[in-house]
Amino acid sequence: MATKAGATLAVSGLTVSYGKAVRALREVSLEVPEGTVTAVLGANGAGKTTLLRALSGTLSFHRGAIEAGTITLGGRTLSGLRPAGVVAAGVVQVPEGRRVFGRLTVEENLRAGALGARGRPGGDAARDRVMELFPVLGERARQRAGLLSGGEQQMLAMGRALMARPSVLLLDEPTLGLAPLMAERIGETVAEINRQGTAVLLIEQNAALALRLATTAHVLEVGEVTLSGPADELAASDEVRRRYLGVGDADAVEPEFRRPPTLERWAG
Ligand SMILES: Nc1ncnc2c1ncn2[C@@H]1O[C@H](COP(=O)(O)OP(=O)(O)OP(=O)(O)O)[C@@H](O)[C@H]1O
Q1: Where is the ABC transporter domain positioned along the sequence (predicted)?
Q2: Is residue 225 part of a domain?
Protein backbone atom coordinates (compact mmCIF):
# COMPACT_ATOMS: atom_id res chain seq x y z
CA MET A 1 0.00 0.00 0.00
CA ALA A 2 1.10 3.56 -0.45
CA THR A 3 1.43 5.87 2.49
CA LYS A 4 0.29 9.43 2.17
CA ALA A 5 2.98 11.32 0.29
CA GLY A 6 4.22 14.38 2.10
CA ALA A 7 5.46 17.67 0.79
CA THR A 8 9.01 18.72 -0.06
CA LEU A 9 11.63 18.49 2.66
CA ALA A 10 13.77 21.58 2.22
CA VAL A 11 17.10 22.43 3.80
CA SER A 12 18.19 26.01 3.31
CA GLY A 13 21.47 27.67 4.27
CA LEU A 14 22.11 25.13 7.02
CA THR A 15 25.21 25.76 9.11
CA VAL A 16 26.01 23.36 11.94
CA SER A 17 28.80 23.37 14.52
CA TYR A 18 30.02 21.06 17.24
CA GLY A 19 31.21 23.43 19.94
CA LYS A 20 33.34 26.37 18.88
CA ALA A 21 35.98 24.34 17.10
CA VAL A 22 34.17 22.25 14.48
CA ARG A 23 31.95 23.67 11.79
CA ALA A 24 30.59 20.50 10.20
CA LEU A 25 28.14 22.05 7.69
CA ARG A 26 28.31 25.42 5.98
CA GLU A 27 25.27 26.89 4.23
CA VAL A 28 23.98 23.60 2.94
CA SER A 29 20.85 23.82 0.79
CA LEU A 30 19.07 20.90 -0.79
CA GLU A 31 15.58 19.52 -1.29
CA VAL A 32 13.94 16.14 -1.13
CA PRO A 33 10.88 16.66 -3.31
CA GLU A 34 7.76 14.69 -2.53
CA GLY A 35 8.00 11.08 -3.63
CA THR A 36 11.62 11.17 -4.87
CA VAL A 37 14.90 9.57 -3.86
CA THR A 38 17.61 12.16 -3.23
CA ALA A 39 21.16 10.97 -2.58
CA VAL A 40 24.00 12.64 -0.71
CA LEU A 41 27.51 11.43 -1.46
CA GLY A 42 30.66 12.41 0.35
CA ALA A 43 33.89 11.15 1.85
CA ASN A 44 34.34 10.27 5.50
CA GLY A 45 33.88 13.36 7.60
CA ALA A 46 32.16 15.37 4.86
CA GLY A 47 29.18 16.01 7.12
CA LYS A 48 26.62 13.49 5.88
CA THR A 49 25.73 12.14 9.29
CA THR A 50 25.62 15.66 10.69
CA LEU A 51 23.06 16.58 8.04
CA LEU A 52 20.85 13.66 9.09
CA ARG A 53 21.27 14.54 12.77
CA ALA A 54 20.12 18.08 12.01
CA LEU A 55 17.13 16.76 10.09
CA SER A 56 16.10 14.29 12.77
CA GLY A 57 16.49 16.72 15.66
CA THR A 58 19.25 14.68 17.31
CA LEU A 59 22.15 17.12 16.95
CA SER A 60 22.10 18.18 20.59
CA PHE A 61 22.70 14.56 21.68
CA HIS A 62 26.07 14.91 19.95
CA ARG A 63 26.82 18.41 21.29
CA GLY A 64 26.03 19.92 17.92
CA ALA A 65 23.85 22.93 17.15
CA ILE A 66 22.28 24.63 14.16
CA GLU A 67 23.87 28.06 13.82
CA ALA A 68 21.94 29.24 10.80
CA GLY A 69 19.48 28.03 8.21
CA THR A 70 16.12 26.33 8.14
CA ILE A 71 14.65 22.86 7.68
CA THR A 72 11.04 22.69 6.54
CA LEU A 73 8.59 20.03 5.43
CA GLY A 74 5.90 21.39 3.19
CA GLY A 75 6.67 24.86 4.54
CA ARG A 76 6.41 23.78 8.18
CA THR A 77 9.56 24.43 10.19
CA LEU A 78 11.17 21.28 11.60
CA SER A 79 14.42 22.78 12.92
CA GLY A 80 14.09 23.22 16.65
CA LEU A 81 11.69 20.30 17.07
CA ARG A 82 12.62 17.42 19.33
CA PRO A 83 13.21 14.05 17.64
CA ALA A 84 9.72 12.81 18.53
CA GLY A 85 8.24 15.94 16.99
CA VAL A 86 10.17 15.39 13.77
CA VAL A 87 8.94 11.79 13.60
CA ALA A 88 5.38 12.89 14.28
CA ALA A 89 5.74 15.40 11.44
CA GLY A 90 6.57 12.53 9.10
CA VAL A 91 10.39 12.52 8.83
CA VAL A 92 11.92 9.32 10.21
CA GLN A 93 15.57 8.31 10.30
CA VAL A 94 17.10 4.87 9.99
CA PRO A 95 20.40 5.43 11.78
CA GLU A 96 23.80 4.28 10.63
CA GLY A 97 24.65 0.92 12.20
CA ARG A 98 20.93 -0.05 12.36
CA ARG A 99 20.63 0.51 16.17
CA VAL A 100 17.91 -2.08 16.60
CA PHE A 101 16.98 -2.90 20.19
CA GLY A 102 18.99 -6.11 20.42
CA ARG A 103 17.36 -7.51 23.55
CA LEU A 104 13.86 -6.91 22.28
CA THR A 105 12.15 -9.19 19.80
CA VAL A 106 11.59 -8.26 16.18
CA GLU A 107 7.91 -7.72 17.00
CA GLU A 108 8.73 -5.43 19.93
CA ASN A 109 11.11 -3.39 17.76
CA LEU A 110 8.35 -2.88 15.22
CA ARG A 111 5.89 -1.88 17.91
CA ALA A 112 8.42 0.64 19.22
CA GLY A 113 8.55 2.15 15.74
CA ALA A 114 4.78 2.45 15.63
CA LEU A 115 4.86 4.62 18.77
CA GLY A 116 6.35 7.36 16.59
CA ALA A 117 3.04 7.61 14.73
CA ARG A 118 1.47 8.85 17.98
CA GLY A 119 -1.81 7.06 17.61
CA ARG A 120 -2.53 8.29 14.08
CA PRO A 121 -4.71 5.77 12.23
CA GLY A 122 -3.22 3.36 9.69
CA GLY A 123 -1.09 1.20 11.98
CA ASP A 124 -2.42 -2.11 10.61
CA ALA A 125 -1.74 -1.02 7.04
CA ALA A 126 1.79 0.05 7.99
CA ARG A 127 2.40 -3.34 9.55
CA ASP A 128 1.07 -5.14 6.46
CA ARG A 129 3.35 -3.02 4.31
CA VAL A 130 6.41 -3.88 6.43
CA MET A 131 5.56 -7.60 6.35
CA GLU A 132 5.18 -7.50 2.58
CA LEU A 133 8.47 -5.68 2.11
CA PHE A 134 10.34 -7.84 4.61
CA PRO A 135 8.68 -11.27 4.98
CA VAL A 136 11.64 -12.44 7.08
CA LEU A 137 10.53 -10.09 9.86
CA GLY A 138 7.28 -12.02 10.11
CA GLU A 139 9.14 -15.31 10.23
CA ARG A 140 11.45 -14.00 12.97
CA ALA A 141 8.82 -12.00 14.87
CA ARG A 142 9.57 -13.65 18.22
CA GLN A 143 13.33 -13.75 17.89
CA ARG A 144 15.60 -11.31 19.64
CA ALA A 145 16.67 -8.64 17.20
CA GLY A 146 20.29 -8.99 18.32
CA LEU A 147 20.38 -12.49 16.83
CA LEU A 148 19.51 -11.36 13.32
CA SER A 149 22.16 -11.06 10.60
CA GLY A 150 23.41 -7.59 9.62
CA GLY A 151 21.16 -7.52 6.56
CA GLU A 152 18.14 -8.63 8.58
CA GLN A 153 18.87 -5.98 11.20
CA GLN A 154 18.95 -3.37 8.43
CA MET A 155 15.55 -4.65 7.26
CA LEU A 156 14.25 -4.43 10.83
CA ALA A 157 15.60 -0.90 11.23
CA MET A 158 13.86 0.11 8.00
CA GLY A 159 10.69 -1.73 8.99
CA ARG A 160 10.69 -0.05 12.40
CA ALA A 161 11.01 3.34 10.72
CA LEU A 162 8.16 2.56 8.30
CA MET A 163 5.90 1.66 11.24
CA ALA A 164 5.94 5.38 12.08
CA ARG A 165 4.42 6.03 8.61
CA PRO A 166 6.94 8.57 7.35
CA SER A 167 6.44 10.74 4.31
CA VAL A 168 10.23 11.12 4.19
CA LEU A 169 12.62 8.33 5.18
CA LEU A 170 16.20 9.29 6.06
CA LEU A 171 18.61 6.43 5.38
CA ASP A 172 22.14 6.63 6.76
CA GLU A 173 24.43 4.25 4.87
CA PRO A 174 21.96 1.36 4.78
CA THR A 175 24.31 -1.00 2.94
CA LEU A 176 27.40 -0.35 5.07
CA GLY A 177 29.10 -3.63 5.97
CA LEU A 178 26.66 -5.80 4.02
CA ALA A 179 27.65 -8.42 1.44
CA PRO A 180 27.05 -7.23 -2.16
CA LEU A 181 23.97 -9.43 -2.67
CA MET A 182 22.34 -8.19 0.52
CA ALA A 183 23.26 -4.60 -0.39
CA GLU A 184 21.47 -5.08 -3.72
CA ARG A 185 18.40 -6.43 -1.93
CA ILE A 186 18.33 -3.45 0.38
CA GLY A 187 18.67 -1.19 -2.65
CA GLU A 188 15.73 -2.90 -4.37
CA THR A 189 13.66 -2.45 -1.23
CA VAL A 190 14.51 1.24 -1.06
CA ALA A 191 13.28 1.57 -4.64
CA GLU A 192 10.06 -0.28 -3.75
CA ILE A 193 9.46 1.85 -0.65
CA ASN A 194 9.84 4.90 -2.86
CA ARG A 195 7.49 3.51 -5.53
CA GLN A 196 4.91 3.16 -2.79
CA GLY A 197 5.03 6.90 -2.23
CA THR A 198 7.63 7.55 0.46
CA ALA A 199 10.35 10.09 -0.30
CA VAL A 200 13.87 9.01 0.62
CA LEU A 201 17.00 10.93 1.54
CA LEU A 202 19.76 8.40 1.00
CA ILE A 203 23.24 8.81 2.45
CA GLU A 204 25.35 6.07 0.96
CA GLN A 205 29.04 5.26 0.62
CA ASN A 206 28.07 2.88 -2.18
CA ALA A 207 27.86 5.72 -4.71
CA ALA A 208 27.05 3.45 -7.64
CA LEU A 209 23.98 2.09 -5.86
CA ALA A 210 22.92 5.51 -4.61
CA LEU A 211 23.14 7.10 -8.04
CA ARG A 212 21.14 4.26 -9.54
CA LEU A 213 18.34 4.71 -7.01
CA ALA A 214 18.25 8.50 -6.84
CA THR A 215 16.59 11.10 -9.01
CA THR A 216 18.82 13.89 -7.75
CA ALA A 217 22.17 13.74 -6.00
CA HIS A 218 24.40 16.12 -4.09
CA VAL A 219 28.07 15.87 -3.29
CA LEU A 220 29.11 17.08 0.15
CA GLU A 221 32.76 18.02 0.68
CA VAL A 222 34.09 19.31 4.00
CA GLY A 223 30.65 20.51 4.99
CA GLU A 224 29.67 22.19 1.75
CA VAL A 225 27.57 21.06 -1.20
CA THR A 226 29.99 21.21 -4.12
CA LEU A 227 28.00 19.47 -6.82
CA SER A 228 24.27 18.90 -7.35
CA GLY A 229 22.24 17.59 -10.24
CA PRO A 230 20.24 14.76 -11.76
CA ALA A 231 21.73 11.47 -10.53
CA ASP A 232 22.36 10.18 -14.06
CA GLU A 233 24.31 13.32 -14.92
CA LEU A 234 26.41 13.03 -11.79
CA ALA A 235 27.04 9.35 -12.55
CA ALA A 236 28.40 10.39 -15.94
CA SER A 237 30.58 13.22 -14.63
CA ASP A 238 34.34 12.58 -14.70
CA GLU A 239 34.79 14.06 -11.24
CA VAL A 240 32.18 11.80 -9.64
CA ARG A 241 33.32 8.74 -11.58
CA ARG A 242 36.91 9.26 -10.51
CA ARG A 243 36.26 10.16 -6.89
CA TYR A 244 33.20 8.18 -5.93
CA LEU A 245 32.81 5.38 -8.44
CA GLY A 246 36.49 4.38 -8.60
CA VAL A 247 36.49 4.60 -12.39
CA GLY A 248 39.55 5.82 -14.30
CA ASP A 249 43.17 6.20 -13.35
CA ALA A 250 43.62 4.52 -9.95
CA ASP A 251 46.42 6.92 -9.08
CA ALA A 252 44.11 9.82 -9.68
CA VAL A 253 41.77 8.65 -6.91
CA GLU A 254 42.14 10.91 -3.89
CA PRO A 255 44.22 9.17 -1.19
CA GLU A 256 41.36 9.96 1.23
CA PHE A 257 39.27 7.29 -0.42
CA ARG A 258 41.90 4.60 -0.18
CA ARG A 259 42.81 5.12 3.45
CA PRO A 260 41.35 2.68 5.97
CA PRO A 261 38.90 4.22 8.45
CA THR A 262 40.65 6.14 11.20
CA LEU A 263 40.14 5.72 14.91
CA GLU A 264 38.58 9.18 14.96
CA ARG A 265 35.98 8.00 12.46
CA TRP A 266 34.96 5.07 14.64
CA ALA A 267 34.92 7.21 17.75
CA GLY A 268 32.85 9.89 16.01
N1 LIG B 1 29.98 14.84 18.13
C2 LIG B 1 30.93 15.48 17.43
N3 LIG B 1 31.77 16.36 18.04
C4 LIG B 1 32.73 17.02 17.35
N5 LIG B 1 32.93 16.87 16.02
C6 LIG B 1 32.14 16.00 15.38
C7 LIG B 1 31.10 15.26 16.02
N8 LIG B 1 30.47 14.48 15.13
C9 LIG B 1 31.09 14.72 13.94
N10 LIG B 1 32.08 15.64 14.08
C11 LIG B 1 32.95 16.20 13.02
O12 LIG B 1 32.11 16.82 12.06
C13 LIG B 1 32.58 16.57 10.75
C14 LIG B 1 31.49 15.87 9.93
O15 LIG B 1 31.28 14.56 10.48
P16 LIG B 1 30.12 13.59 9.97
O17 LIG B 1 30.13 12.39 10.89
O18 LIG B 1 28.88 14.34 9.83
O19 LIG B 1 30.66 13.19 8.55
P20 LIG B 1 30.22 11.99 7.61
O21 LIG B 1 30.27 12.53 6.24
O22 LIG B 1 28.94 11.42 8.10
O23 LIG B 1 31.38 10.97 7.82
P24 LIG B 1 31.31 9.40 8.09
O25 LIG B 1 31.03 8.80 6.77
O26 LIG B 1 32.71 9.14 8.59
O27 LIG B 1 30.24 9.17 9.13
C28 LIG B 1 33.86 15.75 10.91
O29 LIG B 1 34.94 16.63 10.90
C30 LIG B 1 33.69 15.11 12.28
O31 LIG B 1 34.95 14.84 12.87
Answers
A1: 9-247
A2: yes
- 261 CA: nearest ligand 1 atom: 26
Q: Is 95 in the pocket of ligand 1 (CB under 6 A)?
A: no
Q: Of the spans 12-16, 44-48, 247-251, which averages the highest pLDDT?
A: 12-16
- Average pLDDT for residues 7-14, to the nearest whole number? 96
| Residue 32 counted as domain residue | yes
Looking at the CA of residue 96, tell me the nearest atom of ligand 1. Answer: 27
Cα 185 to ligand 1 centroid, rounded to whole Å:
28
| Number of domains, the chain | 2
Are the C-beta atoms of residues 42 and 221 closer than 8 Å to each other? Answer: yes
Continuous H helices in 74-222: 83-89, 106-115, 123-133, 135-139, 150-162, 180-195, 207-213
Range of the structural domain that residue 125 is part of: 102-165
Return the residue whose CA atom lies nearest to atom 24 of ligand 1.
Answer: 44
Calpha distance 189→208 (Å, rounded): 16
Question: Which atom in ligand 1 lies closest to the alpha carbon of residue 50?
Answer: 18
Q: How high is the ipTM of this complex?
A: 0.96
**What's residue 119's pLDDT?**
63
Does residue 184 share a domain with residue 159?
Answer: no
pLDDT > 80? residue 96: no
Distance CA 5, CA 31 (A): 15
Q: Does one domain contain both 29 and 69? A: yes
pLDDT in the model for residue 112: 86
